[in-house]
Design brief:
heterodimer, A: 649 residues, alpha+beta, Tick-borne Encephalitis virus Glycoprotein, domain 1, six-stranded antiparallel beta sheet, four-stranded antiparallel beta sheet, B: 152 residues, OB fold (Dihydrolipoamide Acetyltransferase, E2P), five-stranded mixed beta barrel, 7 strands, 31% strand
Chain lengths: 649, 152
């Protein structure tokens, strides 16, 4: 009960902080501000107590705590017991609140000495968000309920969540990314409340926070795709499931913001737009938490019910109205100081990039929320099929790929005709090369061909920027290629970090385009000793086996990867049976090579082990998606890492 | 500058409105064609001929005793019931071990004129909430034999 009380006390502390800031500002008693900051630290301490108490209860199997009774189990391995902290609704709200309190404490710790009213107001905004999550924790998502009589054991976490190590990675990354978006939001609101919106300081202070949150969110999306690929056994990684969409929506607006923020920094434009993007991104993270955790949209992942939805809707409505009022109140201060000089300029490409990313966001949002609207208005249960998302998003995605090649090549302000020709024509070689490769490989779909061509164009254009810079350094300073690369990137981390992230996105795009165009699959029932073949890969069923583990029973097939009569390796697709779950969890085996994955799933078997139905899928370039995701994060890290010598633009 | 701005403004607004309108129209058109209705067997059968050959998500329980799996042709057949009506479902490429009598399923596909629902996708309802197996439900039975038989 210590944990429950510490959340209650934290609410009082948070409320004090929220009130103290405006009172200090209005009455001129700035001596109050350190107390407001202390409220932020105290909140971090109190929520940490609650979070660690929950982890302790989980680890010690204290089934008198309602959340432990819900997700705990004596046979669950320790790691999965700890991570079941975010396995279900109540625990994940507690985790959200804890991460938020940590971010708030860090932001205040770093910035509290800054003069002016921006930081105090930003701190108050973060406390306001904390207060909302505290309300959830004492109300509809209380994890600390008392269970009586105390059950001797619990069911253990959802089998899908304890079947793969990626579930220890994906959710915390997602929450760190989601909650991280609260920081730019808080500073945007703080800037508007304090009247310091003209200085653009809120953007400078939060640049690294936004980039970090974006990098974490990117990593989370890729990890989620990987998990889906490794656990669900259908051979895919993205199904436009509401839960997937929920993580993707704020990523789209955050990506738009990273680009349009540069236009504001360089040219003093898009101020109003940027504030809206930041507020929108924050709202989408709240909406995403709501969608995934309230179970309002049916999804393979989550079905939970309760009144928590109303709390979320109310909070979203309050934030939306308050933000609109603030933006309207600051509209005089948000005038652009610069203007567009020419259509052929980098800022125009950034504007188009924002237009398409926002359109993408609205498309996905419409498809995700339409079932809710249809049910509320017409009373019919519908879902929006994958064809909608694919049909709508493909034109947007290929356009974005093309823009990714054009943007880096164009200068700010205005490009001359000669400059345009010199910059935009050579990357066409990359487009041509990829187009030929795709045609030879057998692609005929227009969007697939466009995706390959534009990915080639963008890859060429971005790599060329490195090459031009390195060549210039070699001539000017006589450096070797390696030194030139390191100094080039080091001298302008923001810019080259961006290009590196572009290259990562291109790798992801190529992986998706190739795997959805050239994927082949075959399924057959074979006896031990027999083989199954698919596009040059032959697998021989060696044996079927079963194994009891403490928390589950495993049935597997051992398959030998054959090269003629030589055994090159073995693959062991399995089915894991968890006692509390009705259906087994498939565990496909994946053999990754540079050009693609051999993906094998055990579909069915005779209980006596006399045969097994095996599905073999060849997935071209899928490893590029995971690697590309890593490159994206690496690019963001380059841009985040503090510059020693020069401040970056 | 302010003058040129105020002259340009109506055009900018008209342009933005046009883009938004076209985009909205595209979205609406895309939705119109790709909305998949979620129906129970009773609702599907009540549609009569209008229920044939349109994409549908059929939700219900696997009717006990109807799951048949032919490991030669890889065809899985079963019936989905809502307690009032049953619909025969045929699926290829679906993992039969995922099925238990009485469990909740959502099958995506089309109802054919031969009154068999051709499934292209199956979703077993996974839940974040936990339900211990119902009495009489023994998922272990089918694989226990293999574990003993293998002797490992």
């Amino acid at each position: 009960m210590l944990a429950h009380d510490s959340i209650l006390v934290s609410m009082a502390v948070v409320l004090f902080g929220i009130v103290a800031v405006p009172v200090a500002m209005r009455t001129g008693r700035r001596g109050l501000l350190p107390y407001a900051f202390a409220a932020v630290y105290t909140n971090f301490f109190l929520v940490s107590v609650a979070a660690f108490a929950m982890v302790y209860a989980l680890v010690t199997h204290d089934f008198s705590v309602s959340y432990v009774a819900q997700v705990g189990g004596r046979s669950t391995p320790l790691l999965f017991t700890v991570i079941s902290l975010w396995g279900a609704l109540e625990g994940s709200i507690l985790f959200w609140a804890w991460v938020l309190s940590m971010y708030a404490a860090a932001v205040v710790w770093i910035n509290s000495r800054r003069p002016g009213n921006l930081v105090p107001y930003a701190a108050a905004t973060l406390l306001f968000v904390s207060f909302f999550f505290a309300i959830l924790l004492v109300g509809p998502a209380d994890p600390f309920g008392v269970v009586s009589p105390v059950p001797p054991d619990g069911p253990g976490p959802n089998p899908l969540l304890q079947n793969h190590i990626l579930m220890a990675i994906h959710p915390p990354l997602l929450y760190l990314g989601y909650v991280g978006m609260s920081v730019p939001f808080a500073f945007a609101v703080g800037a508007m409340l304090s009247g310091e919106v003209e200085t653009d300081d809120w953007m400078r202070i939060t640049r690294r926070w936004t980039l970090s949150a974006w990098a974490l969110l990117s990593a989370a999306i890729i990890a989620g795709m990987w998990w889906s690929y490794e656990v669900l056994g259908w051979g895919g990684y993205w199904a436009w499931d509401p839960v997937e969409n929920a993580s993707f929506l704020p990523w789209l607006t955050a990506t738009a913001f990273l680009h349009s923020a540069m236009v504001q920094e360089r040219r003093g434009m898009l101020r109003l737009w940027n504030l809206n993007l930041v507020v929108g991104t924050f709202l989408l993270t709240i909406l995403g938490t709501f969608l995934t955790r309230s179970g309002i949209v049916s999804s393979v992942h989550a079905f939970t019910t309760g009144t928590i939805g109303y709390y979320f809707l109310a909070f979203i409505a309050i934030v939306m109205l308050a933000s609109l009022a603030l933006v309207a109140g600051n509209s005089e201060r948000l005038r652009s100081t610069g203007r567009f000089d020419s259509a052929a300029s980098r800022e125009t490409v950034f504007l188009l990039n924002n237009l398409f990313l926002t359109a993408f966001m609205f498309t996905v949002l419409t498809g995700t929320l339409f079932p809710l609207v249809a049910e509320a208005i017409k009373g019919v249960k519908v879902s929006v099929g994958e064809p909608f998302f694919n049909r709508m998003s493909l034109p947007i995605v290929v356009t974005l790929l093309f823009l990714m090649g054009v943007g880096p090549a164009l200068p700010w302000k205005a490009a001359s005709k000669a400059e345009l020709k010199a910059k935009l024509v050579p990357p066409a070689a990359g487009a041509g090369l990829m187009l030929v490769i795709a045609l030879v490989a057998g692609a005929r779909n227009v969007y697939a061909l466009l995706a390959f061509a534009f990915a080639g164009y963008a890859a060429f254009a971005n790599l060329r920027e490195y090459w031009i810079g390195m060549r210039a350094r070699r001539t000017a300073h006589g450096e070797g290629w390696g030194t030139a690369l390191v100094r080039l990137v080091g001298g302008n981390r923001h810019r080259y970090g961006g290009y590196t992230a572009h290259l990562g996105v291109i790798l992801v795009a190529l992986g998706i385009a190739a795997s959805s165009t050239f994927r082949t699959e075959y399924e057959a029932t074979i006896k031990p000793g027999e083989t199954i073949s698919l596009s040059g890969h032959t697998l021989r069923l060696k044996s079927m086996w079963g194994r009891e583990e403490p928390q589950r029973s495993v049935v597997g097939a051992t398959l030998e990867v054959m090269d003629g009569s030589v055994v090159k390796g073995t693959m062991e697709p399995r089915m894991n049976f968890y006692p509390m779950s009705q259906a087994p969890v498939p565990t496909p085996a994946v053999r990754s090579r540079l050009l693609g994955d051999l993906y094998v799933n055990l579909q069915a078997f005779r209980p006596d082990g006399s045969n097994a139905t095996i599905r073999v899928i060849y997935e071209p370039l899928v490893p590029w998606i995971w690697f590309g995701g890593g490159v994206v994060v690496f690019g963001a890290l380059i841009a985040i890492f503090p510059t020693g010598r020069r401040t970056d633009a | 500058m302010t003058e040129s701005k105020s002259k340009r403004r109506p055009w900018v607004i008209a342009g933005v409105a046009a883009v938004v309108a076209v985009f909205g129209w595209l979205l609406y058109g895309g939705l119109d064609k790709n909305v998949v209705f979620f129906l129970t067997p009773q609702e599907l059968l009540a549609k009569g001929t209008a229920g044939y050959d349109v994409p549908v998500r059929l939700g219900g329980q696997v009717k006990p005793g109807t799951v048949k799996w032919d490991d030669k042709t890889l065809r899985l057949t079963f019936e989905v019931t809502d307690g009032k009506s049953d619909v025969a479902v045929q699926s290829s490429g679906a993992p039969p071990q995922m099925f238990r009598d009485g469990m909740g399923v959502v099958v995506e596909g089309r109802f054919g004129r031969d009154r068999v629902f051709n499934s292209t996708g199956l979703m077993v309802k996974h839940s974040n909430e936990y339900h211990p197996p119902k009495p009489g439900e023994k998922p272990q039975e089918m694989y226990k034999t293999l574990i003993k038989g293998s002797g490992s």
